């Protein structure tokens, strides 16, 4: 792998793939749009890709042949087996990266024997360059493969290597987490409206407050509990609000949401209730 000169292919050119392609160009992980080849069965997706300067084709085989470093499977889970058949027909040393939800490394390796495969769980903030992605390397993957994955998904946010068994927890936390945050933003805005603020102003202030608080955690590295204490004066407004959240079970409900989503991800992946209880205590 040559730094900042990756050759990457995408099988599937939907919103997530399109965001990744744009991120690779913007962060100069590839030399330019011409270093990316993508395929799709839907002509409008190919037309949009061509308008951005990407190589677009309906042939999955052409994508694999043109992509030296990585091929990303960005299709619905039920299509992955068919896509793997196309990949297996073309000799390539590119690492195969799947972002298809619930498709395991064992499944990918069974369909692509001898190929190096990686499973990634990104989330929808990828569309605005702020993804939180977890990834697991398959058998035979190299340190260069790890760097390729980190470069690709780091171009649209943060990418953390996680053992595959914990990718369900990644799904429950960062995969489903944006929905929890959207609800929190909506509730903050509703509280502002209840207190007299105009709806538009309340929503903008709520969203910016969440964004700013998240940046404080990420940029300072300070524990969120300490940051909370820093703005909580004795007998002040913030502690009154925190007390109301505690009475409403805010933290317990949030923890419960992550655990419930993690458990559901396991169920969708074919893990039985008994195995979930035995191995994961959920």
Layout of strands and helices, then pairs:
Elements: E1 8-11, H1 15-26, E2 36-39, H2 43-51, E3 55-57, H3 60-66, E4 70-73, H4 80-88, E5 95-98, H5 105-111, E6 117-121, E7 131-137, H6 143-154, E8 157-161, H7 167-175, H8 177-194, H9 199-220, H10 224-230, H11 237-247, H12 250-268, H13 273-280
Parallel strand pairs: 1-2, 1-4, 2-3, 4-5, 5-6, 7-8
Antiparallel strand pairs: 6-7
N-to-C SSE string, H for helix and E for strand: EHEHEHEHEHEEHEHHHHHHH
What's the pLDDT, averaged over the residues? 95
* Total separate domains: 2
What is the strand content? 5-15%
Radius of gyration equals: 21 Å
CATH fold group of the largest domain:
Rossmann fold
Please estimate the helix content. 40-55%
Across the major sheet, the strand order is: 3-2-1-4-5-6-7-8
CATH architecture of the largest domain: 3-Layer(aba) Sandwich
- The DSSP helix count reads 13
The coarse overall form would be: globular
Structural class: alpha/beta
Uncertain segments of ≥5 residues (pLDDT<50)? Answer: none
Q: Describe the biggest sheet?
A: 8 strands, mixed
DSSP strand count? 8
């Amino acid at each position: 792998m040559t730094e900042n000169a990756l050759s990457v292919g995408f099988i599937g050119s939907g919103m997530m793939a399109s965001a990744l392609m744009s991120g690779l160009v913007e962060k100069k992980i590839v030399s330019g749009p011409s270093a990316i080849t993508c395929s799709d069965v839907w002509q409008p997706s190919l037309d949009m890709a061509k308008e951005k300067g990407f190589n677009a084709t309906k042939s999955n085989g052409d994508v694999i042949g043109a992509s030296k470093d990585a091929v990303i499977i960005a299709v619905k889970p039920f299509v992955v087996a068919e896509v793997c058949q196309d990949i297996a027909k073309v000799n390539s040393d590119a690492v195969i990266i799947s972002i298809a939800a619930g498709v395991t490394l064992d499944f990918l390796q069974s369909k692509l024997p001898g190929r190096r495969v990686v499973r990634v769980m990104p989330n929808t903030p990828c569309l605005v360059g702020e993804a939180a992605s977890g990834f697991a390397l398959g058998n035979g993957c190299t340190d260069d493969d790890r760097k390729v994955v980190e470069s690709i998904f780091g171009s649209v946010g943060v990418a953390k290597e996680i053992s595959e068994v914990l990718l369900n927890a990644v799904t429950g936390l960062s995969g489903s987490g944006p929905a929890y945050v959207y609800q929190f933003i909506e509730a903050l805005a509703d509280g502002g409206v209840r207190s007299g603020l105009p709806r538009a102003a309340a929503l903008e202030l709520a969203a910016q407050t969440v964004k700013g608080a998240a940046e404080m955690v990420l940029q300072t590295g300070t524990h969120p509990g300490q940051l909370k204490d820093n703005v909580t004066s004795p007998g002040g407004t913030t502690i009154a609000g925190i007390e109301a959240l505690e009475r409403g079970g805010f933290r317990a409900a949030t923890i419960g949401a992550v655990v419930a989503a993690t458990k559901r991800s396991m169920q969708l992946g074919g893990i039985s209730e008994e195995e979930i209880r035995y191995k994961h205590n959920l």
